[in-house]
Batch of 3 targets.
Target 1
Amino acid sequence: MIRRRRSRPFIAVLPSLALIGLCAAVALRALDPALAAGTPPSIVRIAVAATCAAFAVAVAVLAARPGGRRLVNVALLNLLLAGAGVEGVLRLSQTWLPHAVVALLPPDARQRLAAERGMLTTASIIGSGQLYSYIPGSRFPGQPWLVPDAQGYRNPPEALAGSPDVVLLGDSVTIAVNSPTDLATLFRQDGIPALNLGFNGYGPPHSRDALVRHVVESGRSPKVVVFTFCLCNDVTDSQAYARLRAVGGDWRDYLGSAPARDVPPPPLDRSWVATVAWNLPYVLVQATRRGDAGGEVAVALPRGTVRLPSGNLSPAVPPRPDWALALQALDDMAGRSRAAGAAFVLAYYPNGGQIYRPGITDPALASAIDDGRAAALAILAEWAAAQGVPMVDFTAAVRDANAGTMALASEGDYHPGEPAIRRMYEVLAPVVRPFVTKTK
């Protein structure tokens, strides 16, 4: 009796072929120059393409053998099941996903979740020139207390009537979207009319523009203008503003100056887990370049020990020459405030390393942070003395608030939560009140 050789159906090879095709699509997508605005692919994308190509070759070799096909099919099934599970977890927990994960999601999901949390999105921002703000009346489910006024800033409608006694300028630290209470609200609760013109991403030049448009040109006559200088990014934001102004760029260019996340090839572009995996290599490389991959640092606070990425505690401070553009904007703000009949107050907000400094036990890191803080304060104090304006240092207030409870937007972040905002007000109000009462 002649035994027939069992046929091997083509369907058994289909999973391997699909996987090879997917690897090829991902590799081609990674090498697409259009993703880098026409520039050659980065080393990260080349590495991704090479890895996909090597994986495709390995699958092809295995698929040529009966036992290998079975191995590929089982591995692919497990991969699909695991991916589906992670996909489900991401979608079900979207309300609680960290900002770092939201930034890696597909564009539609990223925009929606970012808008719900009061973050900057093309759907919630309007602007002119390099000045921008929220679309008036926008709503943010993640921050129900954040209701933009008719100018797009964080103020109740009545705050726009007449001239406020206090105008607050600054960036995300000043608008404080993660806190139910901001500094302007606390001033108003004390019977001092206040207007908050702080906004996410602003550098000193943006605050100068906001002062001109919403105070000087609007005919408002405040008693005092307070600008909060955020060490974390005000120097670099001033440089970015100047670069774009030189080439005629606007707020869209400014907000889009950071490298954008993109998506993998179809059909993976709709998958959250696939998009996160696609963007992760780039994020890891950037973290390494910033020093975030240097491990964790144990920070011993009165409320307990927390472990934070070393990149969140960087002691780095921009060198003095880099401060020129920021200081020029400060000159302009102080001069325009005085011309409008208002006193000018400079406030200093520390970076993450300086906030967590009391709990850092590494002598070298602690010393570097102290040196950086001293250098930054020396530059600003020198400017304040030359201008004859008072200066407020928020460092001790934020440290005190964060010692007994987590007082920031999240652990390791530098943005203030409500406990920090209230302590900051206790430091700022005594400096501001004399300027208000003198003119009443």
Note: The chain has 16 helices and nine strands.
Target 2
Amino acid sequence: MKKSMDCVERKKPRKLEGELRELKLRLRENRGESREKEHGLRRKKKTAQVGGRTARVEVAIARKQLLINCICIKASRL
């Protein structure tokens, strides 16, 4: 166990972060999530009632801004 820890400590932290990010991305893609999640966007599918009928809506939430009005709703049909 100690031997593997030495290897990790010897690596440059910047490079290690990059590798970790790549691994996480690959993991997400395997689960079927898109790369957009990496760039501060979370995409969710929700149903919204628009004009008396329900539509499947893709909601993109900017993770770095906490304001409610930064939620962009892109409805397929309104």
Note: The chain has two domains: 1-33, 39-78.
Target 3
Amino acid sequence: MYQHDYSVHPFFENLKKSEETLYKEKQKIVQESIKDYLSRYGSQILVNSLTSDLQQQSKKTFILWDLQT
């Protein structure tokens, strides 16, 4: 029988360990960016135009998933 070495380079081990923390940090940045954008430009959004654009998409099927599950 041969002995296999399944060790992982420390860089990749640390990357995997920090993946969840980094994901949460990125999510926080995204949420803050959206909030900032809406607070700056929300009053300029043409609601009727946006509604029309969304209604044109109503017959399409979209697939969504949650990366956390």
Note: The CA atoms of residues 50 and 56 lie 10 Å apart.
